[in-house]
C-alpha cells in the first residue's frame, strides 16, 4: 500500500512537471525583431513595420550589399495587436525580446506618441534599453534602408551606430527608459534621435550653393552632403513637449546641448580663423569638468547660472599662423570662447522661445527650493522655463597642440594673380 | 522540550535578516514610493527605528521570563486559554504571511518570465521545496539562510552598482516628499514591514541566550533598514518618484535597464537567481515558523505530521486572491502595514499586564541547559 | 570418411533416435550450512596429541582435495614427532628451509627443554605461541607457518610471509608534477610502511581490525595519538567492528559500509592512493583506514574542501595554489550547471543572452531535427559511452580515444546536422571541467547532479535551476562526515581556517582545522621562519658601506 501511494505521488509530481513546457520555445521557433517602425495609417490606425534578421547561414548569402533581413509592414490599431496579427503571415512567432530601436515618423510624433509607448512599458518582452528615434520621412522608408555596407551582421551594425552617439554627440543617446521617464517627469522634457534617409545626391562637386562647411548649417536628416554605401543617417535631435514633437535641433546644437547636460564626451569643433579669413581651425574639444549648474529665484524669476569648462587640443591650423606661441594661445582661446558662447546662447534661446521646452532638466535644480512634491508640482516648472534667465560662464583652455609646437609658414608658393 | 537544535549568532542574524529584507525584491518599493514620493528613503529608516523600539520592548518582556519562548510567556501571563488563542493567532498569521508571499512571487514571475505556465505548477514545485526544508528542521534552515544571505548581498550589490551610471541623485528633490505628516503616518504604519523580527522571540530556545537575542535582533534590523534605504535611494535616483510608483517590481526593472555597451548588457539573470532563491527561503521560514508556533501552542512534540495539512492550507491561501491588485492592496497591506497591531502591540500589552500583575519568570535550571 | 560426413549432415533431419541428453541445472538445497562454521567460532584449545592435531589441520583445510595446504611431518633429532603446516605459495620457502626445518632437525638443543623451542631453536624473527585452534587456522591462512611438536599443547606460529605482491609504483590516478611519486599497493604492510616513512613519530599508532566474515580481510587504522581527538578513533572502531557481512575486499567496499549517509551522491570520505596526502591529513588530526586488497586509503572525517584539493597545492607557492583552487571551484560550477543553464536560457529566457549569440545559435540550429533537450541528452549519452569505452580499450588507444573520439564524433555530428556546434563546445567544456575535480567519486557524483539540473532546466527554466540549487544546498548542509559538518568552510562558523578557500602561504598556516577538534590546535608559532628575525652570519649594514 505504501509503495503504491508513493508511486502515485511521484507520478503526480512528474506529470505536473511536464505541463511546464508551455513556456518553452526553441530558439528557431521565433523571429527576433530588431527595429520597429510606426507610421500614421488611415483613420487612427498605425502602420507597424518590423525588421528581423533571417536565419540563413553566411555561406548562402550572395553579396554584401543585399541584407539578410526581412522588413514586414501591417496596418493595425496598436503595436501589440500588430505583433499578433503578423503571426498570420510569418511562419514563426514574432518576438520583441531583442528589439533595439523603435522609430516613429515625424507625422505621428507631432500628434503625440504617448499612447503608443504606454503598452511597450507594460509589455514584458520589450526592454527599456531600446533606443527611441523620430524619422524625418516615413519610418518604413528608413527601415528599408537600414542596413550596413560593412557586414551582414545587422544587429551589430545597429548597436554600433547607436553607440556613435557617445563618441561624437551629433545625436543623443536616448533609451526608452530615459525617454519614458522624461515624458512623465516634472523636472524636464524629453528628446529623441532624429533620423532620416538621404538620397545621396547632395554631393555634386562644383555646385555653387553649398555654404562654407565651417558655418554650422541647419542640417536635417537627409541633407548631409555625402555619398556612400548606405542611405540612412542619424542627424540631430527631435525635441518634445510632453509627448508631442515641437521641433528639432541640428547636430551642432545637439552638441552644445549635451555639453550642458554633461553627456558630452568629445567632438571636433571647427572655427573660422579670425586672423586669416577663408581658413579654419579644427579643434578637439571635450569637457574639462562636469558642468556646474546652479539656480535660484530672484523675485519669482528663476535665474540659472551655467559654468562650463572646456578643454581643447589643436587639430590643425590651416593658415599656419603660429598660434602655439604663448601670447597667441590666449588669443585663440578667446576666439573659441566667443564663438561657443554665441552658439550656445543661440541654442538656449531657441529652446526657450521657439520650443518652450526644458530639455536640460533644470527642474532638478529648482526642486530644492520646494518642500513637498505638491508644492513643486503646483508651481509647474515646465511652464515657467521660458521665463528663466540663463547666464553662461564659459572658460576654454587649449591644452595640447598635437605633434607640432611651432608652426612655420610655407615658403616659395608662387603668388596667384 | 527543544528539539530544534542550536545555532550561532551569524545564523540567527541570517534567518531574520533574509526574511525582512527579501520584500524589497517585490512590489514593496513601488508601493512605498507611491505613498510618500521622494521621502521614501528616510521613511523606511523611520519604520526601522520604530521597529527597534518595539523590539526593545519585546526584549524587556523576554528578559522578565528568561528561558521561555513567547508562546509560553503568553500562557503564563494571560492564562492558558487566552495564551493558546494568541499562539494560534500568531501561527495563523505566519501561515497567511507565507501564502501571500508565495502568491506575490508567483504573480511576479508569471508577469516577467513565464506568462503561459500554469499557476499550479509553480505552487506545487514551490510547496515541495518548502516541505523539504521544513521537514529537515530549523538548523537546516538556519544554515541555508546564511548562504542565501550571502547570495542576496552579492546579487543586490552587483545590480545596484551596475545600475549607478543611470542614476541622477538630483531626483531625490524635493526632499520632503508629499509632506511631513504623510511621511510620519506611513513611517509608523510601515514599521509592520519589519515585524518579522518577532520570529526571534519564537525560536529563542535555539539561540544561545538572551544576549545573543538582543544583538541578533538589533543587527538584523540595522542591516535590513540600511539595505532598504540604500536600495530606495538608488531606485529613486534611477526612476523618479512618479515613474517609480508604476513598476511591478522595482529591482527587476533596475536590472533590466543595465546597458553599458554592445557586450555588457542583459544581466538580469543575476537578479533572477537571487530573487528566486531568496523567496524560496523566505516562504519556507514563514511556513516553518507557523507550524512550529502551532506545535508550541498546543504542546505537540513532532511537527512533521502537520506538514501536509498546513501545506494544503497554504495552497488555499495562495490561491484565494483574485488578481494582482487584490494581492497588492489587500494581502500585502495586511502583511506589511497592519500586521504590527498583532505582532507589536500584543507583546506590549502582555508586558503591561505582566507589570501590573507582577508576574515574573522563574529561573529554571533545566531550561537553561 | 565420406560416410561420417554424410551422416553428420543427415543426422539433424533424419528420424533416427537422438539420445536424450539432459542439461545441467543447479538444484535447490536447504540452507543449513551453518553448522560447519560453529566449530571455528568456538575457542577450542589445542589438544596434546599429534594425531589429533594432524586430523584437525586436515579436516579444517580439506586436505584430501585441497592441494594448497602442505603438511610436512618430520622428526626432531630423530626422536620426537613434529609437523609444520603452511599454504603453498603464501610462504617464503627459504625461511622455512633454513630457519625452521634446519634448526629443528639439526640443533641438538631442540630436544632438551620444553618451551625453549621457540626461544632458542626456531630462528625466525617473529614467533608466537598459539593455544586456540582458530587462531592457528587464521595464522596459516595469512601465510605464516605453524609448527607443532608432539606432546605440546601449543603451536608455534612463525612469520614466513612470502606471497607475490606488486612493487611500489607510481600513482595512476593522482599524478602530480612536483610531489612524490610513490603510491600505495595492495599489500597492507607496504602501505603502512609508506606512511611511516613520512611520519617518523612514535605516537603514530596502527590498529588492526578484521572485516568480512568469509574472506577475513585485515584493515588498519592509523592515527597520531596526542593530536587526534580520541572520540574519532572510538567511533571509527565502533563502526568497523559493527560490520557483519561476508565479503569485503578493499577500501571501496569498506567505505560504503561505514560512511554516514550512504544514499548521498557526494562522498563523505576521501579516498586516495598517495601516502603523502594521507600523512598530511593524519598530522592535521584525522584518521586513515587502509583495507587490504586495493591500493587506496580512506581518510575521515573530511569537509568539502578536502575533495577539491590536489596534493600538489602544498608543494607550490601560495599564489599558484590559490589560483588553481579558484579555477577548480569555477570548474565545479561549470560542470554542474552549464548544460542546465544553456537549455534554460535558449528555451525559456532568450532575452538574457546577447543578440549576436542568439542569432548564431539560431542559425546553427536551423537544420537540426531535434529539440534542444534531445540534443543535449544525446550528446551527453554519447560522451559517457566514449568515456566508458576509453577505459576498456586496450593499449595506447585507450587514452587517446577519450579526447580524439569526442572531437571526431562531435565534428561528424555537426557536419551531419545532427547537433549544433555550440552544443559541442558546451558539452566539451563541461566534460573537461568535470575532469579537473581531483576526487574520482566526487566527479562521478557531479555527473549525476548535472543530469538532474538538465532535466530541471528543461522543464522549468531558471526557476527550476534555482529550485535545484536550494534542494541541493539543503541536502549538503545536513551531511556530516563522522561528526564534522560537511560544508564546514562557512557553516557553522569555525575559527579562521588557513587552508580552505584561499591558500595561505605555508609559513602562515598556524592552526590545525578546527572542526575535527584536535587536541593540539596550534601547529606553528606565529613566526615560523625564525631566520627573518635574526641577522645572517655574514652581514653588513647597507647604509655605511662606501662601495
Descriptive overview:
- The complex is a heterotrimer of chains A (about 425), B (about 375) and C (about 550).
- In chain A, about 30% of the residues lie in helices and about 25% in strands.
- About 0% of the residues of chain A have low confidence.
- Chain A folds into two domains: about 210 residues, no CATH class; about 150 residues, GMP Synthetase, Chain A, domain 3, CATH 3.30.300.
- In chain A, the strands form three sheets. Chain A has an eight-stranded mixed sheet with strand order 4-3-2-6-7-8-9-10, sandwiched between helices.
- In chain A, strand 9 and strand 10 form a beta hairpin.
- Chain A is of the alpha/beta class and about 425 residues long.
- Chain B is mostly helical.
- The relative contact order of chain B is 0.22.
- In chain B, helix 5 crosses helix 15.
- Chain B has a single domain, classed as Amino acid/polyamine transporter I (Up-down Bundle), CATH 1.20.1740.10.
- Chain C has three domains: about 120 residues, no CATH class; about 120 residues, no CATH class; about 170 residues, no CATH class.
- Chain C has 16 helices and twelve strands.
- In chain C, the strands form three sheets. Chain C has a five-stranded antiparallel sheet with strand order 1-2-4-5-3, sandwiched between helices. A five-stranded antiparallel sheet of chain C has the order 6-7-9-10-8, with helices on both faces. A two-stranded antiparallel ribbon of chain C has the order 11-12.
- In chain C, helix 11 packs across helix 16.
- The longest helix of chain C has about 40 residues.
- Chain C starts with a helix and ends in a 62-residue tail after the last strand.
- About 0% of the residues of chain C have low confidence.
- The chains are: A alpha/beta (about 425), B mainly alpha (about 375), C alpha+beta (about 550).
- Chains in contact: A-B, A-C, B-C.
- Chains A and C meet through helix 6 of A and helix 12 and helix 16 of C.
Amino acid at each position: 500500500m505504501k509503495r503504491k501511494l508513493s508511486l502515485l505521488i511521484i507520478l503526480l509530481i512528474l506529470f505536473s512537471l511536464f505541463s511546464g513546457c508551455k513556456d518553452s520555445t526553441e530558439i528557431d521557433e521565433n523571429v527576433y525583431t530588431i527595429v520597429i517602425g510606426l507610421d500614421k495609417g488611415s483613420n487612427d490606425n498605425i502602420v507597424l513595420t518590423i525588421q528581423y534578421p533571417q536565419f540563413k547561414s553566411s555561406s548562402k548569402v550572395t553579396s554584401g550589399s543585399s541584407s539578410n533581413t526581412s522588413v514586414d509592414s501591417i496596418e493595425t490599431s496598436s503595436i501589440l495587436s500588430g505583433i499578433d496579427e503578423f503571426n498570420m503571415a510569418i511562419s514563426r512567432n514574432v518576438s520583441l525580446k531583442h528589439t533595439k530601436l523603435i522609430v516613429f515618423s515625424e507625422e505621428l510624433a507631432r500628434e503625440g506618441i504617448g499612447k503608443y509607448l504606454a503598452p511597450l512599458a507594460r509589455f514584458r518582452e520589450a526592454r527599456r534599453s531600446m533606443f527611441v528615434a523620430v524619422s524625418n520621412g516615413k519610418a518604413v522608408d528608413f527601415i528599408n534602408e537600414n542596413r550596413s555596407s560593412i557586414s551582414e551582421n545587422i544587429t551589430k551594425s545597429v548597436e554600433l551606430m547607436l553607440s556613435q552617439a557617445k563618441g561624437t554627440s551629433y545625436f543623443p543617446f536616448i533609451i526608452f527608459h530615459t525617454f519614458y521617464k522624461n515624458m512623465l517627469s516634472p523636472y524636464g522634457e524629453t528628446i529623441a534621435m532624429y533620423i532620416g534617409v538621404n538620397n545621396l545626391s547632395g554631393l555634386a562637386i562644383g555646385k555653387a550653393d553649398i555654404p562654407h562647411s565651417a558655418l554650422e548649417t541647419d542640417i536635417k536628416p537627409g541633407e548631409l552632403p555625402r555619398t556612400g554605401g548606405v542611405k540612412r543617417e542619424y542627424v540631430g535631435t527631435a525635441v518634445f513637449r510632453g509627448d508631442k514633437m515641437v521641433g528639432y535641433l541640428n547636430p551642432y546644437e545637439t552638441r552644445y546641448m549635451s555639453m550642458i547636460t554633461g553627456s558630452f564626451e568629445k567632438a571636433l569643433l571647427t572655427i573660422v580663423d579670425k586672423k586669416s579669413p577663408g581658413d579654419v581651425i579644427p579643434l578637439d574639444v571635450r569637457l574639462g569638468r562636469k558642468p556646474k549648474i546652479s539656480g535660484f529665484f530672484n523675485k519669482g524669476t528663476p535665474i540659472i547660472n551655467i559654468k562650463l569648462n572646456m578643454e581643447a587640443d589643436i587639430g590643425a591650423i590651416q593658415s599656419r599662423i603660429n598660434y602655439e606661441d604663448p601670447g597667441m594661445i590666449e588669443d585663440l582661446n578667446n576666439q573659441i570662447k566667443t564663438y561657443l558662447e554665441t552658439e550656445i546662447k543661440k541654442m538656449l534661446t531657441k529652446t526657450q522661445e521657439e520650443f518652450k521646452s526644458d530639455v536640460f532638466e533644470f527642474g532638478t535644480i529648482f526642486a530644492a527650493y520646494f518642500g513637498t512634491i505638491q508644492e513643486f508640482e503646483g508651481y509647474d516648472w515646465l511652464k515657467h522655463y521660458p521665463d528663466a534667465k540663463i547666464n553662461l560662464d564659459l572658460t576654454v583652455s587649449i591644452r595640447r597642440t598635437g605633434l607640432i609646437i611651432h608652426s612655420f609658414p610655407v615658403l616659395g608658393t608662387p603668388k596667384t594673380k | 522540550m527543544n528539539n530544534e537544535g542550536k545555532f550561532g549568532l551569524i545564523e540567527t542574524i541570517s534567518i531574520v535578516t533574509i526574511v525582512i529584507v527579501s520584500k524589497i525584491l517585490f512590489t514593496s518599493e513601488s508601493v512605498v514610493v507611491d505613498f510618500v514620493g521622494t521621502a521614501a528613503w528616510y521613511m523606511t529608516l523611520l519604520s526601522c527605528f520604530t521597529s527597534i523600539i518595539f523590539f526593545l520592548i519585546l526584549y524587556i518582556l523576554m528578559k522578565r521570563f528568561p528561558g521561555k519562548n513567547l508562546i509560553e510567556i503568553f500562557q503564563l501571563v494571560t492564562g492558558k486559554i487566552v495564551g493558546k488563542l494568541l499562539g494560534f493567532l500568531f501561527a495563523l498569521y505566519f501561515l497567511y504571511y507565507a501564502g501571500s508571499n508565495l502568491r506575490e512571487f508567483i504573480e511576479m514571475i508569471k508577469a516577467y518570465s513565464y506568462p503561459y505556465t500554469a499557476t499550479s505548477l509553480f505552487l506545487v514545485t514551490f510547496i515541495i521545496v518548502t516541505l523539504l526544508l521544513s521537514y529537515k528542521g530549523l538548523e537546516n534552515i538556519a544554515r541555508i539562510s546564511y548562504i542565501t544571505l550571502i547570495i542576496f548581498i552579492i546579487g543586490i550589490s552587483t545590480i545596484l552598482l551596475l545600475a549607478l551610471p543611470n542614476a541622477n541623485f538630483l531626483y531625490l528633490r524635493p526632499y520632503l516628499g508629499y509632506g511631513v505628516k504623510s511621511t510620519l503616518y506611513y513611517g509608523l504604519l510601515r514599521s509592520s514591514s519589519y515585524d518579522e523580527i518577532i520570529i526571534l522571540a519564537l525560536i529563542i530556545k535555539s539561540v544561545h541566550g538572551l544576549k545573543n537575542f538582543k544583538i541578533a535582533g538589533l543587527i538584523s534590523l540595522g542591516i535590513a533598514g540600511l539595505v532598504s534605504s540604500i536600495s530606495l535611494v538608488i531606485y529613486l535616483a534611477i526612476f523618479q518618484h512618479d515613474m517609480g510608483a508604476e513598476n511591478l517590481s522595482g529591482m527587476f526593472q533596475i536590472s533590466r535597464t543595465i546597458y553599458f555597451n554592445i557586450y555588457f548588457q542583459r544581466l538580469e539573470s543575476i537578479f533572477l537567481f537571487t530573487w528566486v532563491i531568496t523567496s524560496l527561503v523566505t516562504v519556507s521560514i514563514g511556513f516553518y515558523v507557523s507550524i512550529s508556533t502551532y506545535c508550541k501552542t498546543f504542546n505537540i512534540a513532532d511537527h512533521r505530521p502537520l506538514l501536509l495539512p498546513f501545506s494544503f492550507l497554504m495552497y488555499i491561501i495562495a490561491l484565494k486572491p483574485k488578481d494582482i491588485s487584490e494581492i497588492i492592496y489587500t494581502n500585502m497591506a495586511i502583511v506589511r502595514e497592519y500586521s504590527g497591531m498583532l505582532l507589536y502591540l500584543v507583546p506590549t500589552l502582555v508586558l503591561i499586564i505582566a507589570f501590573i500583575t507582577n508576574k515574573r519568570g522563574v529561573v529554571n535550571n533545566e531550561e537553561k541547559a | 570418411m565420406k560416410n561420417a560426413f554424410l551422416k553428420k549432415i543427415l543426422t539433424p533431419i533424419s528420424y533416427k533416435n537422438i539420445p536424450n541428453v539432459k542439461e545441467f541445472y543447479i538444484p535447490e538445497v536447504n540452507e543449513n550450512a551453518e553448522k560447519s562454521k560453529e566449530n571455528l567460532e568456538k575457542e577450542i584449545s589445542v589438544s596434546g596429541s599429534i594425531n589429533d592435531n594432524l586430523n584437525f589441520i586436515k579436516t579444517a583445510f580439506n586436505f584430501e582435495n585441497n592441494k594448497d595446504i602442505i603438511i610436512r611431518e618430520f622428526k626432531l633429532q630423530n626422536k620426537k614427532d613434529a609437523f609444520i603446516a603452511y599454504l603453498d605459495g603464501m610462504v617464503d620457502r627459504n625461511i622455512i628451509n633454513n630457519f625452521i626445518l634446519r634448526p629443528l632437525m639439526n640443533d641438538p638443543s631442540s630436544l632438551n627443554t620444553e618451551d625453549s623451542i621457540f626461544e632458542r631453536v626456531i630462528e625466525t624473527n617473529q614467533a608466537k605461541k598459539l593455544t586456540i585452534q582458530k587462531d592457528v587456522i587464521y595464522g596459516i591462512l595469512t601465510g605464516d607457518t605453524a609448527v607443532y611438536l608432539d606432546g605440546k599443547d601449543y603451536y608455534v606460529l612463525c612469520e614466513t610471509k612470502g606471497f607475490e605482491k606488486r612493487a611500489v609504483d607510481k600513482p595512476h590516478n593522482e599524478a602530480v608534477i612536483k610531489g612524490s611519486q610513490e603510491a600505495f599497493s595492495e599489500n597492507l604492510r607496504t602501505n603502512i610502511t609508506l606512511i611511516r616513512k613520512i611520519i617518523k613519530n612514535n605516537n603514530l599508532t596502527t590498529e588492526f581490525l578484521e572485516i568480512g566474515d568469509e574472506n577475513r580481510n585485515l584493515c588498519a587504522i592509523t592515527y597520531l595519538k596526542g593530536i587526534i581527538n580520541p572520540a574519532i578513533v572510538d567511533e571509527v572502531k565502533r563502526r568497523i567492528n559493527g560490520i557483519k557481512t561476508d565479503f569485503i575486499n578493499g577500501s571501496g567496499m569498506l567505505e560504503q559500509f561505514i560512511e554516514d549517509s550512504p544514499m548521498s551522491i557526494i562522498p563523505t570520505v576521501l579516498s586516495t592512493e598517495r601516502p603523502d596526502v594521507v600523512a598530511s591529513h593524519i598530522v592535521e588530526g584525522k584518521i586513515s583506514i587502509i583495507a587490504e586488497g586495493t591500493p587506496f586509503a580512506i581518510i575521515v572525517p573530511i569537509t568539502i574542501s578536502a575533495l577539491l584539493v590536489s596534493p600538489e597545492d602544498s608543494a607550490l607557492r601560495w599564489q599558484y595554489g590559490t589560483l588553481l583552487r579558484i579555477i577548480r571551484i569555477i570548474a565545479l560550477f561549470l560542470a554542474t550547471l552549464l548544460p542546465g543553464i544553456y537549455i534554460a536560457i535558449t528555451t525559456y529566457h532568450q532575452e538574457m543572452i546577447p543578440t549576436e549569440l542568439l542569432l548564431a545559435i539560431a542559425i546553427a540550429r536551423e537544420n537540426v531535427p531535434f529539440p534542444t533537450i534531445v540534443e543535449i541528452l544525446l550528446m551527453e549519452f554519447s560522451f559517457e559511452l566514449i568515456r566508458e569505452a576509453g577505459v576498456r580499450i586496450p593499449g595506447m588507444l585507450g587514452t587517446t580515444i577519450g579526447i580524439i573520439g569526442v572531437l571526431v564524433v562531435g565534428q561528424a555530428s555537426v557536419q551531419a546536422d545532427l547537433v549544433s556546434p555550440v552544443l559541442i563546445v558546451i558539452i566539451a567544456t563541461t566534460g573537461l571541467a568535470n575532469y579537473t575535480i581531483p576526487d574520482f567519486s566526487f566527479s562521478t557524483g557531479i555527473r549525476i547532479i548535472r543530469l538532474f539540473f538538465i532535466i530541471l532546466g528543461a522543464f522549468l527554466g531558471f526557476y527550476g535551476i534555482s529550485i535545484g540549487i536550494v534542494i541541493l544546498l539543503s541536502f549538503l548542509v545536513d551531511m556530516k562526515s563522522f561528526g564534522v559538518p560537511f560544508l564546514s568552510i562557512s557553516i557553522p562558523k569555525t575559527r579562521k581556517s588557513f587552508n580552505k578557500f584561499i591558500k595561505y602561504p605555508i609559513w602562515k598556516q598556524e592552526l590545525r582545522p578546527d572542526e575535527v577538534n584536535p587536541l593540539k590546535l596550534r601547529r606553528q608559532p606565529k613566526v615560523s621562519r625564525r631566520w627573518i628575525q635574526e641577522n645572517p652570519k655574514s652581514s653588513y649594514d647597507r647604509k655605511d658601506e662606501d662601495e
